[in-house]
Amino acid sequence: KNQVEQSPQSLIILEGKNCTLQCNYTVSPFSNLRWYKQDTGRGPVSLTIMTFSENTKSNGRYTATLDADTKQSSLHITASQLSDSASYICVVRTNYGGSQGNLIFGKGTKLSVKP
Amino acid sequence: GAGVSQSPSNKVTEKGKDVELRCDPISGHTALYWYRQSLGQGLEFLIYFQGNSAPDKSGLPSDRFSAERTGGSVSTLTIQRTQQEDSAVYLCASSLGFGSGQSSYNEQFFGPGTRLTVL
């Protein structure tokens, strides 16, 4: 069964600290993996996309990694800011299966950055 | 428009009433998705439209839920005889389409959502 598991479920850190969010998946065949950021009261916004051949990709203070062998991805946030407080959602796409638009969503990690 | 828009932004209704939620996708996007997000929960897939293909309705929780997409653009999600457990934020997303070799095709752009409260 295609599944995406994220951890931790929630996380509280102090402003300026780094943190890493995890995403493990059992989706097959794998097409790509996206990390979305969802601010409270808003729709998710794409941060980065990882394809099979990519190991690391950065977007400002956000760095995503992908290990296609172990089917794990991480999102590292450097020097956190208060505006990083949000839910971070991992979404994996498969090329086959046809259901749900071939997109499997994780439940998200809720990050709270405190001053 | 510049992005996906949804209306209304908030809807309060009484149990048993019907509601219609509207989604205006980004112009030119052939794929449209509806999701439901209960408080503190992840996104729950409801329905997916791709071009002129038959929609994937596998996520609709009951026959009280239906959706249509007219002219390949605007979509309406209808909930009949609303129940209190239908209270949630309903999110719509659109994407360019479906190209396995082009990752940009499947980036979803989400609307701000409609917050539905059933009293």
What does this structure look like?
The complex is a heterodimer of chains A (115) and B (119). Chain A is mainly beta and 115 residues long. Helices cover 0% and strands 57% of the residues of chain A. Chain A has strands at 4-7, 10-14, 19-25, 30-38, 45-51, 56-59, 62-67, 72-77, 86-94, 103-105, 109-114. In chain A, strands 2, 4, 5, 9, 10 and 11 form a 6-stranded mixed sheet that branches. In chain A, a hairpin with a 6-residue loop joins strand 4 and strand 5. Chain A is globular, with a radius of gyration of 14 Å. Chain A starts with a strand and ends with a strand. Chain B has 119 residues and is mainly beta. Chain B is 0% helix and 45% strand. Chain B has no helices and 10 strands. In chain B, strands 2, 4, 5, 8, 9 and 10 form a 6-stranded mixed sheet that branches. In chain B, strands 1-3-7-6 form a 4-stranded antiparallel sheet, with no helix packed on it. At the A-B interface, strand 4, strand 5 and strand 9 of A face strand 5 of B.
Count of distinct strands of chain B? 10
Give helix % range of chain A. under 10%
- Spans of chain B of at least 5 consecutive residues whose pLDDT stays below 50 are none
In terms of DSSP E residues, the strand content of chain A is: over 45%
Count of β-strands of chain A: 11
Secondary-structure element string of chain B:
EEEEEEEEEE
Poorly predicted spans of chain A: none
How big is the Rg of chain B?
14 Å
What percent of residues of chain B adopt helix (DSSP H or I)? Answer: under 10%
Overall 3D geometry of chain B? Answer: globular
| Distance linking N and C termini of chain A | 41 Å
Content-based structural category of chain B? mainly beta
- Which term fits the overall shape of chain A? globular
Element order of chain A: H for helix, E for strand: EEEEEEEEEEE
User: What's the overall average pLDDT of chain B, rounded?
Assistant: 90
Largest sheet of chain B: 6 strands, mixed
The radius of gyration over CA of chain A amounts to: 14 Å
